[in-house]
Amino acid sequence: MKKIGVAILGLGTVGGGTYKILTSKKEKFINTFGTDVTVENVLEINDARIKQLNIDQSIVTKNIAEVVSNPAVDVVVEVIGGIEPAKTFIETALKHGKTVVSANKELIAKYWHEIEAVAKANDAGFYFEASCVGGVPVIRTLTESMQGNDILSIKGIINGTTNYILTKMSDEGLEFNDVLKDAQQKGYAEADPTADVDGFDAAYKLSILSSLAFNVKVPIEKVYREGIRNISKKDIEYGKEFGYELKLLAIGKRGENGIEARVHPTFIKQSHPLASVKESFNAVFITGDNVDDIMLYGKGAGDMPTASAIVSDILYSSGVAEHYYVPFVNDKNGNGVFNKDFSCKYYIRLTVKDKSGVLAQIAGVLGDNNVSIYQVIQKESLDGKAVIVVMTHTTFETAVKKAVEQLGGLKDVVEKVNALIRVE
Amino acid sequence: MKKIGVAILGLGTVGGGTYKILTSKKEKFINTFGTDVTVENVLEINDARIKQLNIDQSIVTKNIAEVVSNPAVDVVVEVIGGIEPAKTFIETALKHGKTVVSANKELIAKYWHEIEAVAKANDAGFYFEASCVGGVPVIRTLTESMQGNDILSIKGIINGTTNYILTKMSDEGLEFNDVLKDAQQKGYAEADPTADVDGFDAAYKLSILSSLAFNVKVPIEKVYREGIRNISKKDIEYGKEFGYELKLLAIGKRGENGIEARVHPTFIKQSHPLASVKESFNAVFITGDNVDDIMLYGKGAGDMPTASAIVSDILYSSGVAEHYYVPFVNDKNGNGVFNKDFSCKYYIRLTVKDKSGVLAQIAGVLGDNNVSIYQVIQKESLDGKAVIVVMTHTTFETAVKKAVEQLGGLKDVVEKVNALIRVE
């Protein structure tokens, strides 16, 4: 019988979930996979958690040296989160030839190259299905199911908190701040919601997923990032009239001018499968040149779904003939060809003085910047002011940004452009 | 550099697609996976196909003995379809220690046990991701991503032709026969549509998927099967009024009374992610006890998506430390515990004489059979006849079937019950 000894570093919700699955499914793993999986060590400084899970003190330690020198440990699960001590612990384990399974998206997005170098040098495995979209098998799909494809694009709703907020704003016509407050009270959003609502969490995941999809390490600094704080219910409402739903999308594309990776609020057609992904559910829509479109949908977070992904990595990693390292095609210095000046359609909302000639001025500025207009609609008119919505044809980001700045400077535009939202 | 020699048996659309991917992506596989994949043999009796794909005559053969005795061939791809000679060819290849990759759902559903026994005895691999739902990685998800779960249920739209027909019926208010004729003209349905519209194709796939999900070989004879020929646009219309969409669902469940596996037209809530799967797209909705709900969506058929799955099996199978055989828990004779008398909610439509007392008769028959009524609606009234729709609470299949038979015998019921549709 094959044996796998596991050490769990950190008994937070995901670590606890992993412990629960490994112990409750022990018999199943023996019967189904002929594999005896045993938790040999738990590293945790919080005694209350040890007690809560009723873990035998003999396997508990507060010292990483004890874990990595334990010959019974084959796989080290890192679910501490953050950069340190997680990074040091992971590298120490790899240096001892242990396979490491991690859910740490921030760490991987920032230090993948370093960690992988240590893994390679020690012929050790490094697996991280749980780092992206919880229990949804998006990494395994990219690496073990789409090999016969060049991936053309990835579009994902990969942050549950923001999708929950946008769903509430859309379905109930509420403003961002009100929904956020409610979500915080219900525990769906953190007290400090920055990582979620400003798109950091999604950007980490997109860095990982687009690196895997394109075999080009996409460093986190190359990911364009814009959160949902400035989204108004008005924009969601107007978008619907054009047939769009608003989502915080993470988009990775392989184009003629290089790889583009961006996280921003995005209007997508109501008929697109991603448009009906609601509440805190996640989904990733992947297009390959042979398989066409695939979508994977599920819970992107939560203790048990994420632990499910960790357990799948533990068993999967023990079944491979050789550990796999992503063959990044970046140059020696990590540089790849990235396209910062992406192109798409744009939704622009601005408030203007309600008088003749204003539309001509707007059209003039857009035209001067080669931004071609698809549609202009005057939405409201009150107190001598009018709300104008412009939908553009496909155009370049830099062109639109320049145009928006100039529009803000027009004397008949009240304040500045109210909203600039990308349309896919 | 790792080398994989491939033989393709059968150059139909999927075989041709596989050849195209393997030759066009040769460089990519070398650069990305460090693996040199070469098509060493093609077995095909139709010379036109060989010519069309511009295949070097030196690798073409019409003799399986030549393929299996070729030491350069590691993986044999069977894309002939049907039972013979596919079965003999596969078993011959396995006996020579070759890994076999197959897309043959009918063969696997009917002879999995036999083929797997040959594979095991010869330590040879047998892979069949392409047999179910084309390029959508549902098998890899079950085997390599959900190991930490007991699968509770699978619900799938796994036949593109019937989903196309039902979508047209639903969106355009057309009758089955008219849509079928149109689909046949457009090449979306076969001249003999039996395999699709009567649910055979979906039943084969469900046999495979539910066997994998539950580790219980679910023989094709244990799959309840009902097609969509008798679906009327009226039922789709009425279902919508209750908030339901009609789909041909393949359902596998692990329940207290054993495994149930069934393919039949099914009403599902319009808010369910499967309800918005339209046209010829497929989707499989899997529920695990830890990961909760996952849905995989994509093209369920077509030459390149299916070939994409075959290519993924070729590369995946060459990366495993040991071939995996499903540890079925059936007894020696292949028997498992199957639940034929499943339970769900039911939609019943019947036409009755429009006079007082009829509803009481219907309610009486249903009550006598322990079928509890959730709602009764009189939909139409014309020429002294009325159309009645009954929605039941959850009840047993045998009870409903008995009740429906008795209802048909009531003298105030015109002919017999017009429609009996399950509701999930």
Write a structural description.
Two copies of one chain form a homodimer. With 424 residues, chain A is α/β, with parallel strands linked by helices. Chain A has three domains: 2-131, NAD(P)-binding Rossmann-like Domain (Rossmann fold), CATH 3.40.50; 152-297, Dihydrodipicolinate Reductase, domain 2; 343-423, 2-Layer Sandwich (Alpha-Beta Plaits), CATH 3.30.70.260. In chain A, 37% of the residues lie in helices and 27% in strands. Chain A has helices at 13-24, 26-33, 47-52, 64-68, 86-95, 105-121, 138-144, 160-172, 176-186, 194-197, 200-214, 233-241, 303-317, 358-368, 397-409; strands at residues 2-9, 35-43, 60-61, 75-78, 99-102, 126-127, 151-157, 224-225, 244-255, 258-269, 281-288, 292-299, 343-353, 373-382, 385-392, 395-396, 419-423. In chain A, strands 7, 8, 9, 10, 11, 12, 13, 14, 15, 16 and 17 form an eleven-stranded mixed β-sheet that branches. In chain A, strands 3-2-1-4-5-6 form a six-stranded parallel β-sheet, sandwiched between helices. In chain A, α1 (13-24) crosses α13. Chain A starts with a strand and ends with a strand. The model of chain A has no long low-confidence stretch (mean pLDDT 95). Chains A and B meet through α2, α7, β12 and α13 of A and α1, α2, α7, β12 and α13 of B. β12 (292-299) of chain A pairs antiparallel with β12 of chain B.
List keywords for this structure.
homodimer; 424 residues; Rossmann fold; eleven-stranded mixed beta sheet; alpha/beta; Dihydrodipicolinate Reductase, domain 2; six-stranded parallel beta sheet; Alpha-Beta Plaits
